[in-house]
């Protein structure tokens, strides 16, 4: 029997049969995040039959069932979940190697895909893009507006490089795949008609809004729940007379003078300078935290590091003071 460095040719053949294909492991990881073969196929630019075939080969390689049908989607078996969890370490290492290679080249260039939800898309992102295009014209920047849950899945599936999300969603299931970096702490504020009885107050407690008619953006379910919970803790249920599907409609209802609302301050930069509104901080503070999520190890890539530096430079321009009052000082209620 032939030997090479003490390894038989027969054992080498067995070893190569046992080696798992990284591309197939990546498809399984995407399936764990996206939940359907169709979505995986779309994410990796393959046909559904091609994805199904590759996953079937992976099951043959591992000798076990890795996923099963569940309603309209699929669900990983315990063996599949374990394989995805263990392979995350492999992908982390691959990302680190790719980052090291990119760092060795030194150039801040290439494509960077960023996603963010509405209020970040209208505040941080334009400023970040302006800085990056000025400092690093070789970057090919791409942006997609996504809600936090979609954005997080896109980052885990490597459909975007950086996802700006908030703490309205649970990221526990994806924590092994992603690195989370704190970006910003946003606070909620009441939006009142300019002639409202509380418009001139420096801050108000949410209990002071117990007798008001409310408008709420029902599409922002997490914030709706947070606001309703705060009201209940203050001893009342908000009287919601306007159930809206977006922030523009919610503010439009406040403009009538018939209702009030409570929204995150970052989304209210325009409202704070609109003479139709008074934007008043809520005390005690109601907080949401914003993070940037990325695949483990990628933050060392020069292009990704450049985006993070730009964020670090831009975010302080939007920072609220501890009590929100200073950051909303231009609200028309103080000019009246």
Summarize the structure in words:
It is a single chain. This protein has 336 residues and is of the alpha/beta class. It folds into three domains: 3-87, Arc Repressor Mutant, subunit A, CATH 1.10.10.10; 107-183 and 289-318, 3-Layer(aba) Sandwich (D-Maltodextrin-Binding Protein, domain 2); 185-287 and 324-334, D-Maltodextrin-Binding Protein, domain 2. 40% of the residues lie in helices and 23% in strands. It has eleven helices and 13 strands. The strands form four sheets. Strands 5, 6, 7, 8, 11, 12 and 13 form a seven-stranded mixed sheet that branches. Helix 9 links the parallel strand 9 and strand 10 (239-244). Helix 2 packs across helix 5 (78-105) and helix 3 packs across helix 4 (48-62). It is globular. The model is unreliable at 1-7, 9-18 and 321-336 (pLDDT under 50).
């Amino acid at each position: 029997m032939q030997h090479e460095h003490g390894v038989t040719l027969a054992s080498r053949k067995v070893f190569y049969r046992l080696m798992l294909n990284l591309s197939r492991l990546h498809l399984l990881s995407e399936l764990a995040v996206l939940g359907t073969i169709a979505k995986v196929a779309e994410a990796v630019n393959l046909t559904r039959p091609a994805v199904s075939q590759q996953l079937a080969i992976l099951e043959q390689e591992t000798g076990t069932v890795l996923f099963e049908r569940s309603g309209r989607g699929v669900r990983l078996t315990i063996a599949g979940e374990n394989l995805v969890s263990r392979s995350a370490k492999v992908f982390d290492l691959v990302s680190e190697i790719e980052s090291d290679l990119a760092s060795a080249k030194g150039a801040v260039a290439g494509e960077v895909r960023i996603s963010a939800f509405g209020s970040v898309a209208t505040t941080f992102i334009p400023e970040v893009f302006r800085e990056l295009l000025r400092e690093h014209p070789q970057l090919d920047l791409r942006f997609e507006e996504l809600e936090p849950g979609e954005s997080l899945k896109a980052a885990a599936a490597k459909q975007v490089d950086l996802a700006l999300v908030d703490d309205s969603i649970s990221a526990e299931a994806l924590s092994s795949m992603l690195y989370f970096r704190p970006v910003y702490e946003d606070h909620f504020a009441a939006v009142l008609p300019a002639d409202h009885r509380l418009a001139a107050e420096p801050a108000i407690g949410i209990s002071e809004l117990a007798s008001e008619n409310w408008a709420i953006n029902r599409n922002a379910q997490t914030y709706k729940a947070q606001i309703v919970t705060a009201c209940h803790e203050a001893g009342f249920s908000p009287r919601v007379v306007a159930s809206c599907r977006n922030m523009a409609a919610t503010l439009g209802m406040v403009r009538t003078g018939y209702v009030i609302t409570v929204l995150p301050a970052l989304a209210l930069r325009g409202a704070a300078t609109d003479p139709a509104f008074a934007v008043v901080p809520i005390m005690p503070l109601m907080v949401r935290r914003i993070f940037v999520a990325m695949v483990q190890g990628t933050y060392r890539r020069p292009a990704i590091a450049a985006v993070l530096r730009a964020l670090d430079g831009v975010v302080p321009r939007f920072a609220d003071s501890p009590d929100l009052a200073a950051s909303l000082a231009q609200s028309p209620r103080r000019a009246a």
